[in-house]
Amino acid sequence: MRFLAESVIRTTPERLFAFHELPDALSRLMPPSEHTRVIQLPRSLRPGERAIVAVRIAPFVWIETEAVH
Q: 5, 9, 52, 61: which could form a disulfide with 40 (CB 3.0–4.6 Å)?
């Protein structure tokens, strides 16, 4: 199975990158219906930086996921 999605964002690459560098960008990108909590933000967008997000998979059951840039 393969899933492909595409978005058109009408801005410059510089402005889009600057948005992703904002301290609260990850929280702003998560929809409220996703039931997530940001545990640790990356210090930057440099390769190797890590973010940890808790995701609710059932009532009272949370798992922590780690994203590495």
A: 52
